[in-house]
Amino acid sequence: MRALIVIANLGSIACLWWALRDSEISKLRDEMRSIDWRWVCAGAAADIMVYVVQGWRWRILLSPISTVRMAQTVRAIYVGLFANELLPFRTGEVIRCYLLNRWTSLPLPVVLSSALVERLFDGVWLILFFAATLQFTPLPSFVDRLAGVLTIVVLLLVWVLVTALVARRWSERMVAKSPGMVRLIDDLHAMGKSRSFYLAFLASLPYLLLQVVPVYTLMRGFGLELPNGSVLGAAAVVTVVLRLGTVVPSAPGNLGTFQLLAAQALGLFILDQSLAKRFSFLLWGLVTLPLLLGGFVAMALTGLKLRELQRQAQAKASSVS
């Protein structure tokens, strides 16, 4: 595990070095003075709404099993996101599930199963978005490869879900020696047979669409001119590349990796690569700072320290695996 963390951090440092090299970063101060901050504020508000919609979707998904307050799901999501920005390997996913288990009567395996279903929904919509962005411009070959890997993973998850729904008893006999897998199949069956399952799937569309908005508004506020495409189309492409690329483990906050992906995607539309690199730093700040602020407040409300919460969540997850 430590070796993977070191490799991921070294890779992120290399990406950050690439983003800073020849970026003429000193120009960024003057460029920020000319930004229309009304667009930036609109983007920050949209970024907050992304996670409110995610909390709404999570609540819908869990509704067949238990009634969960939206304030609980949103708060847990923000704590998880805060942890993801500071800890390696997206530990926040386990932490947010542990918190919802702690605040409600929901068993942790149920909550973990719901998070898995959420990622399945995201993967399906992201693949569809990837296909749509190809109508705007050809994407870099590494993005094509990542999309291919994501498609395989999503298809495997769909197969697991369909099997749990259609052949529940057979599936349980196949994994009878693993109580954790039996619980997973039971939970997937309980969620998948409900109408709310399909409503949650549809709710994943605005969740993804809203992620395009901060990119679009910053482009407008920055006054970015795109001779090779529309601003909205470029924003969609940048969003898809970021979502696909940040699946790969990297440094906390995706620092370095984020800038590389955003600059490469934007470089498909503008000729000035140094401008694309500087813009990537602004975009990272726009989507990260509100998240850190909201996550810090949500974390403070738990009354726990982050490392303590991480240990508790990992211990609880290990006990039910």
Task: Chart the SSEs and their pairings.
Blueprint: H1 2-20, H2 28-33, H3 37-62, H4 70-86, H5 92-103, H6 108-133, H7 141-166, H8 168-174, H9 179-192, H10 195-210, H11 212-222, H12 231-245, H13 257-266, H14 273-302, H15 306-320
Can you describe what's shown?
- The chain has 321 residues and is mainly alpha-helical.
- The chain has one domain.
- Helix content is 78%, strand content 0%.
- The chain contains 15 helices and no strands.
- The longest helix is centred in the last third of the chain and has 30 residues.
- The radius of gyration is 20 Å and the shape is globular.
- The model has no long low-confidence stretch (mean pLDDT 86).
Please supply descriptive tags for the structure shown above:
321 residues; mainly alpha
Sum this structure up briefly.
The chain is mainly α. It has helices at residues 2-20, 28-33, 37-62, 70-86, 92-103, 108-133, 141-166, 168-174, 179-192, 195-210, 212-222, 231-245, 257-266, 273-302, 306-320. It has one domain.
Largest sheet: none
- The gross shape turns out to be globular
Mean pLDDT metric: 86
- Rg over CA atoms: 20 Å
User: Termini separation (Å)?
Assistant: 18 Å
